Amino acid sequence: MEPIGIALAIFTVLATVTTAIANPLSAALIRARARRLPLQFRSRLEEEWLAELDAMPYPWDRLLFAISLAISRQRSFAHSVEGTAETRTHRAFSYVWSKCAHFLLEVGIGFLPFLLIELIFRSAGLSTEMVFIFGACLPWDRWSCAGTDVEKPGWRWTVLMKCLLVPLIPEVFRQFYSGGMGVVAWAFLFPFCFPHTRPLLFLQHLKRAKGETNGWHITPFLKEFFLWIPFALVVTGIVHELPSLTGFSENKLFMIQILMFIPIFVLLLAVNKYRRAVFVSNLSSWTGLNKQDAPTDWRLGMNTSNVCEVPLAHPSGARQYLQWCLGVIGFYVVYGGFYWIGLGPVLPGPGYLPLVVTSFLLCVSLAGIFVGFHARGRVRRCSASETIEAHWEQPETLRDAGAAWTGFSGSAIVGIIGFFFTGMTVSLVVGAAAFLLLLLSGPRWLTPTRKAVSA
Amino acid sequence: MPSPVRLTHQSLRILRVFLDTMSGNIHAELAGTDVMTATHFLSGTVYPILLRFEDAGILESRWEKESPAALGRPRRRFYRLTPAGIKTAQKALDDLSSPVKRLRPAHRPA
Question: What is residue A23's DSSP assignment?
Fold first, then answer.
């Protein structure tokens, strides 16, 4: 199935399910919101809001109405009950919460993208490993000898069953070039091991394996990430205390914070750039290699024309990473700019949190479109008759295609999510534009690869 | 006399909607969703402002008179400007649209 078709199917299912549950979900959100209101107008507002909900014709309008109320600030409704014990407690809580929320929001916005990237691109951990994919019907002892003779310590052997292997191979190429590798990484993490059977062999050598089960589960990148979190927390905490310590205004400190985050992004990008690996494949003999043709030394005997060195933390992934970084920086610059000119607290719009989220999603969407166009300009258009080998000789083409594809698709998803979250038309326009670009360009770039691999 | 209330950009727009509605019909009333439609604000913005105005005496509200059984749906709540609220709204919007006095510089360069 085409990726566009899958995306459309997922979108349709999501839209249908959300539409179906919009009414009960909206009512539940409103009741939950009303329960958090001061006693004086708890029942009145619940009744009023449910009546308004009933008067709305479209489920999406109801959902937006309920979500907007659900995420509205608690103190917005607490103005008219000053003086009561409940209000005083509530105000103290909201003061503390507002401080914590601001703090958590900044840390979240700064570092959530890296968490997502880490989850999506866990295969980056493989980038320090050597991965070999061979196609052959060979006895297990032959493979084991070949491996142990060359480099025994720290190598691990995994044989995947044919039923797992067959769907996995197209995924290797599809995800390798489009930026995911999630399915492949998952199969590596939980392989079915039958070392004494004789299926088509899918052999991976994990060099420098640290653990008994697998060596890349805790990757250097993940470790770096966990190191960055406390660092970011400390930095953000210090910056928050600076107004009282230094007497600087909040606006100036916000800009200082932005300037402090930029080198972190640049450093992380640099780390990602130099993470390279060797991906060796013998595709042309995938089904033809047999025991008689097998050379003694498997590694040296491979046909070098089919050996390709590419970074496993490949540019399409790096570009998506770049997209997030640009988006975050853009967000800080835009939003910080408003603060700088003194408009931060009084920005017109539907409230603080939706505005922050929308600004962030918009910046990420626009950065994705920028990244996609940058890659698109370097993509050679392919005809459907070309084979995977033709692309394999020119991996740059497919990588750029993958980068453009991930940029556009990411922007489309983020833009549409932004619209449903905030109802701002500009988010929908950006998302729709990215989706259109994806429809216009993505399939032509990626179809030959998939067809060739499937064949 | 309405108690003083902080007038933000959003609250001024909401006041404008009520004034515009009343210019056609002095007894005109609006529900919360009508205000949302007219201002393009979300519910999380509109309702806190309506409550604040009501608390300050700028707006008054009432439930629909008919019972839900007679209406066949839940009863809605409608808002309208109070006489004092009309004056407050007109004054606030007039202040906003009146020309700003040109300031004379305190110091002239030598």
Answer: H
Give contacts of B 39-78 with A, CB under 8 A.
Answer: 41-45, 47-48, 51-52, 55, 73-77
Q: Is residue A185 part of a domain?
A: yes
Query: Does the domain made of B9-96 have the CATH classification 1.10.238.10?
Result: no
Question: What is the Cα–Cα distance from A244 to A241, expressed in whole angstroms?
Answer: 6
Angle (deg, nearest 10), helices A315-340 and A395-422: 40
User: Which value does ipTM take for this structure?
Assistant: 0.86
Task: Tell me if A123 sits within 8 A of A260, measured CB to CB.
Answer: no
The reply to whether A264 falls in a domain is no
For chain A, which residues lie within 8 Å of any Cβ of chain B, measuring from their own Cβ?
A: 41, 44-45, 47-52, 54-56, 64-66, 68-72, 76-77, 79-80, 346, 348, 350-351, 354, 423
Domain that holds residue A34: 3-117
Q: Is B33 at the interface with chain A, CB within 8 A?
A: yes
Asked whether residue A269 is domain-assigned, the answer is no
Domain parsing of chain B, residue ranges: 9-96
How do residues A390-436 score in pLDDT, each as one tens digit?
444 444 555 555 556 656 666 666 666 666 655 556 667 777 777 77
Span A30-64, pLDDT tens digits: 887 887 787 777 888 888 999 998 888 888 888 88
Q: Report which of A92, A51, A60 is spatially closest to residue A74, judged by C-alpha positions.
A: A92
- Chain B: residue nearest A73 by CA? B44
How many domains does one find in chain A?
Answer: 3
Q: Within a domain: residue A244?
A: yes
